[in-house]
Amino acid sequence: MNVEFSPELEAFRAEVAEFFATAPTPAIREAGRKTTSVFAPFDQCMEWHKILAKKGWAAPHWPVEYGGTGWSVEQRFIFAEEYRKADLPPLLPQSLGMVGPLLIDIGTEEQKAKYLSPILAGEDFWAQGYSEPGSGSDLASLQCRAEPDGDDYIINGSKIWTTYAHHANRMFMLVRTDNSGKKQQGITFLLLDRVDYPGMEIRPIVGLDGVPEQCEVFFDNVRVPQSGRVGEENDGWSVAKHLLKHERGGSASSPTLVHYLDRAKEAAAKTPSPFGGMLADDPVFQSEFGELHADVASLGHMEKLAISGHPIANDPAFPSLNKTINSELLQRASTLMSKVSGVGGLARQLEALRVGSNVEPLGSEFDLISMPLYLNSRAASIYAGSNEVQRDLISRSLAAGV
Ligand SMILES: Cc1cc2nc3c(=O)[nH]c(=O)nc-3n(C[C@H](O)[C@H](O)[C@H](O)COP(=O)(O)OP(=O)(O)OC[C@H]3O[C@@H](n4cnc5c(N)ncnc54)[C@H](O)[C@@H]3O)c2cc1C
User: Fold this and answer.
1) Which candidate, 296, 236, 270, places its Cα nearest to that of 81?
2) What residues flank ligand 1, with Cβ below 6 Å?
């Protein structure tokens, strides 16, 4: 089906496409092409963030008074579509998509004044310190402890899977401030102004794809000011849940998936099929591609409804539904890409993947990225809350509505 946009929207599309064709540096473009995760290469990603911020386009989803664009749902979708077509690095979600919207919703005026504009400008990057060894799905069991001491808290314990903590300059985290009562009741939400406090140590973890993206973070008597608390002491669970709504819903993933499918189709048209002709003409490829395309289109429709403020987005099950569907589609799309590459994708080429490297990839650039993307996206059904747990939440919400 072809949807026609008004001439004004087409003019907006042309303006966005023109900016994307001219504003990024070659290194930013290379980083976009070599992004094999939700998380783009850090340096070029932040450089691109700053360019978008100067243009006023870093946070289209924020309210205008805090630096958002005030775009209509169609404009936001067109922006996301052109972004993916231009193959530019996605901006990192923790600051713009999580702690920023949280502070806009429930931060104090002082916290908003201090933190929002450096997030928007791309000067600050926040890591998310929720999970601990033994506390992921069962997050409320977390044990990293903060003891009040004068105007400060003293933190002891550890966090794990903290994405890009080794690049971050700030961190938001959950700490245990009380052990009596229900486990959800003694948690507090804290903003850390630095990640290099004395006693704090960050150790990167190398992932399946060979890239260090996640980290362990250790706290040994780390003193942080209590002024970084969001909400009341021991009421961090409700703050954490509010942030998770922003983490799991409200974004537009379908343009990225469409882009991956386009790349798979383009590569399949150049790949000989073992049964003769090209892979793109093979009925098995076409059937898998067609099914995925239809499912991605359905997700796109749901995302447009959500962005437009449709009541579906207020359903408590919506963030879980959105997260489950888009992570599964990402895994299916990257599986299709790796099938197209076949053995061409098997070589481990970490140096060729590095932005700025002068090592030429073996095979095509598509082959270079397909396997790391496949491996990295295995984690999509785990991070932001595993899909099994999301299904549980969806079923509970449905049962409550019966
Ligand atoms: C790539 C990546 C990036 C991440 N980034 C961050 C980050 O930046 N910050 C952060 O704080 N955390 C981060 N995480 C952590 C992530 O949120 C947790 O890994 C996730 O919540 C799952 O918790 P777990 O790893 O402890 O698994 P577990 O909870 O031990 O789960 C193991 C398995 O048991 C299943 N399971 C558990 N409970 C139930 C249940 N009640 N019913 C059915 N099945 C169940 C799970 O679905 C899963 O399959 C990241 C994780 C990954 C993999």
Assistant:
1) 296
2) 128-131, 136-137, 161-163, 214, 379, 382-383, 385-386, 388-389, 392
